[in-house]
Structure formats: C-alpha cells, structure tokens
Amino acid sequence: MASSSVYSLVLRVLASNKKMKEFWIILKTMKEKGFYLDEETHLTISTGFKKDKLSSDVVALSHFYKGMLEQNAMKSVVTKVVGIISGSEWDDDKVDNELEKVKIQFSDNFVIRVLKELRNSPLKAYKFFHWVGKQSGYQQNTVTYNAVARVLARTDSIEEFWSILEEMKSVGHELDLDTYIKISRQFQKNRMMEDAVKLYELMMDSSYKPSVPDCIMLLKSLSATDKPNLDLVFRVAKKFESTGYTLSKAVYDGIHRSLTSVGKFDEAEKIVETMINAGYEPDNITYSQTVFGLCKLRRFEEARKVVYELQQAHGYIPDLKTWTVLIQGYCNAGELDEALLCLYKMMETSCQPDADLLAVLVDGFIMQKRIDGAYKLLLEITGNCRICPWQATFKKLIESLLGVRKFEEALDLLRLMKTKQYPAYHEPFVSHISKFGTMDDAAELLKVLAMKNYPSQTVYLQIFESLFQDGRHSEAKDLLYKCPHHIRKHSKICELFGSSESPASESPIVAT
C-alpha cells in the first residue's frame, strides 16, 4: 500500500541512480496523492544532488519542500477552521470567538480550501465567506467570489447564490466562464431551469459571454424536461440574438424540439419556415423531433404519415434515427405489432437496423412480457442484418429469459455473446441453476464458458457456493466429481467442501 515512507524510499533510489525524469514524476504524484516528503529524505536527496553538481535540481527540490511545508501547515489550519464551523450553528458569537483564537494567514488559497471543505454546508460557507471579508488585511476578490458562487449554486442556498452575484456586481467582479459552465451544468442537472436561464442572461450581458455550444446545451436541457417551459426557451433565444449572434441551425433545432415536445406543432412549423428563410434546410433532426412530439402525444398515425411521406413531399429519405424515433414511440406505447410493421417498412427502403434500434425493440418486447418474441427477434435481426447487439441488450434479455425459466434460450444468447467477443455474463445463470436447474444445466453452462477460453476458478467457486446456499450439497458434490483435476484440487473449493483432499479421481467431463 502507498505511503509517505514508500514514496520516500522510491525517491531515494531514483535520485541515487540519477533517474531525474522518473524522480520528478514520482515526486509530483506523491504530492497529488496527499503524501509528504520527510525532512531526512529531503536532506539526503539534496546532499546527493549537491555532490553530483545538480544545482538546478537542488534549487527545485528546496522550493518544492518549502512549498510542501507551507501547504501542510495551511492544511492543519484549514482542518481546524472547518472543524470549528462544522461543529456548531453560526447563530451567535461562539464561532466567531473560536475562529479569532486560530492563527490564520489569510490568502486566496486558504479561503478557497475552506470553502471547498464546506461545500456540503453551503450556508456555513456563505457565513464564513462574509466573516473573512470583515477581517483586517484581507479583501475578497474575483477568485474567491467565484469559489463561493460554485459552493452556493444549490437548491438549499439559491437565495445566497444570487445575493453573492449581486454583491460581486456591486464591487466590480464577474463570474468567469469556467465557473459559469460548471454552475450552469449543475443547475441543468438538478432541473433548476429558471436559475439556469437567469444565469445565462446575466452572463450574456457580462464581459464573459457563453459560447454558441453553451446556448445549444441549455436549449437541449430545456426541451428534455417533461413539460418544457416555452417562456424560458424563448428568453434564451431572444438573449442569444440580442447580443449580436445569428440564430444557427442548432439553435433553431433547440426551439423546435421544445415546441414539438409540448405539442405546439403549428408554432413548430412556423419556426421551420423561419429557419428555411434564414437559409437552413430541414433535416433528419427536424423531422425526428416532429415524429417524437407526435408519438409523445400518441398521435401515431400522424407520426407515421410524416415518415412515410417525407420522400414524396420533401424529397427526403428518412434516415435510421427518424425511423428509430417512430418505432420507439410505438414500443413505449406497447404497440409492438405496429413497431414491427415500421421495422419491415424501413428495411424495404434499404435502411438497416443497428444495435440502438435492436435495443429499443428488445426493451419494448420485454416491457410487454413477450420474452420469447424478444429472443426470436434478436436472433433474426442479428442473423439477417449482421449487427452486433449491445452488451447491455444481451444482459437484459438473458436475465428476462431466465426469469421465465427459458434456460436453453438464455444459454444460446450466452454462446452468441461469446462469439461477439463480449465477456461471458455467467452471474444470473449461477443463481438460476442453484434454485431451479440440474447438474446437467451446470455442466452445459461450464461448457459454454469454456468456448475460446477456460472458465476461471472463480466461476466454479460461485456455482458451488450458490448450490450450498440453497442446500444442494449432494448435487454439488456430484458436479465436483465431474470437474477438471485442477478445479477439484483448488484450495478454496476443497475448503468449501470441508476437506483439503481432493475427491476420488474420475474422468472430468465438465469444460474439458
């Protein structure tokens, strides 16, 4: 296990062998992992450098060691300050009095480190920030304001967040772009969309304007909510345009996506017309968004009509993504027969399914508990279209097949999975066999696992342990007799069966 002493020993060896590149790499790694160079090691290495006339390395090591000591001392103070603040409510003078007893050298680095440690207590971080601002000899700056803003950008401290931004503005400081991006993503992740839009508007009026991709990402997040707030969508677009930007195809797509998602198809069509007038032609993104919106409202006939008539009306051949959106709409609604009709219609146009579409169809069948249908569909598409299903698709269908006691079918998928170079997914088979299977089933599983490489000893051990847990000791012993010699002699397996001696020799017939 890594420790300061181990790192120190490695550094001494590297220094004595004059492997300076490796020495500085290890020293940097040591610091990053929170380990420290002790005084004795520093003196020994420094003396060696001097003897070898490595003057620049002597200076660099001295500078590193001095900085490390200062950082270590600061860490101790930071820990003490955080302990005082975290230990009680900051409602009286107790915390102030305790903090005043600590000998603190105020610096940007110190303030940032305390704020980082208090990130899970944002209101205490807010009070600490203002307490620091009242101390003589230190003044908050852009760096520390940005640091506290990052900590406060949460639901339970959003009022304090906006208060800090107002305060920043009053003293001439601004959020930097890196801070904006982190906070905006946090707002979007937590579905704080009103705050995300308000922050975007504020930044577009600042010296550090968000980029076009930042605007597009925000519009995507707005459209991804269950009920997109169109007011927020248009606020973003308006602010984007008012600051001198020209609406791009991606921005039009973002607006269009939100409108179709809430069923505002007339307004969406007007956006498309505006987009065309601006020089952008509708494409698969435009049409797939319309199809998605219609499917969301279960207006399947209209959605299908959009796809079927694209080539005739617009000279556009629907691509795989557009078909996938339509088929997924049917699957989500449980309309599997219609989904299959669309699949075959798609294939008639020489558009072949991929692993994503296969995953959509398999999920749809599983949701409707048509497990056997999902299995047959996967084999048919995989065989006819020469596609490789996703590993997650294999796993989900194997679990579903075993859930309805379709062991042979699940085993077929495991074989197919192995031929596709995926790691063997044996875990659900182990629990299934221990509860419902026979030892012949176990032998078959081990033979499948032996394809291309030998089953690990861990797999055998898991099977035996699972059988023991279900009280099938005698059957486990029967299976053991059929296993290869090295498995029967394995120490953990012998221990499991209560003996360090292997069972009587018989010809192994499992996974040989």
Please give the structural blueprint:
Layout lengths: L3 H13 L3 H13 L6 H13 L3 H32 L7 H7 L7 H10 L4 H12 L8 H11 L5 H13 L6 H13 L3 H12 L7 H12 L6 H13 L6 H13 L3 H13 L6 H13 L3 H9 L1 H5 L5 H13 L3 H13 L6 H13 L3 H15 L5 H13 L3 H13 L7 H10 L2 H11 L7 H13 L3 H9 L3 H4 L2 H6 L16
Helix pairs in contact: 1-2, 1-3, 3-4, 4-6, 6-8, 7-8, 8-9, 10-11, 10-12, 11-12, 11-13, 12-13, 12-14, 13-14, 14-15, 14-16, 16-17, 16-19, 17-19, 19-20, 19-21, 21-22, 21-23, 23-24, 24-26, 25-27, 27-28
* Helical residues, percent: over 70%
Query: Compute the gyration radius: what is it?
Result: 33 Å
SSE sequence, one letter per element: HHHHHHHHHHHHHHHHHHHHHHHHHHHHHH
Number of strands: 0
Mean pLDDT: 86
State the end-to-end distance. 39 Å
Assembly type: single chain
Poorly predicted regions are 500-509
Taking the sheet with the most strands, its summary is: none
Strand content: under 5%
What is the SS-derived class? mainly alpha
Helices, by number, come to 30
Organism: Trifolium subterraneum (Subterranean clover)
InterPro entries: BIR6-like, PPR_rpt, TPR-like_helical_dom_sf
PPR repeats: 141-175, 176-210, 248-282, 283-318, 319-353
Protein name: Pentacotripeptide-repeat region of PRORP domain-containing protein
How would you summarize this macromolecular structure in one to three sentences?
The chain has 512 residues and is an all-alpha fold. Among the domains are: 352-424, no CATH class; 426-512, no CATH class.
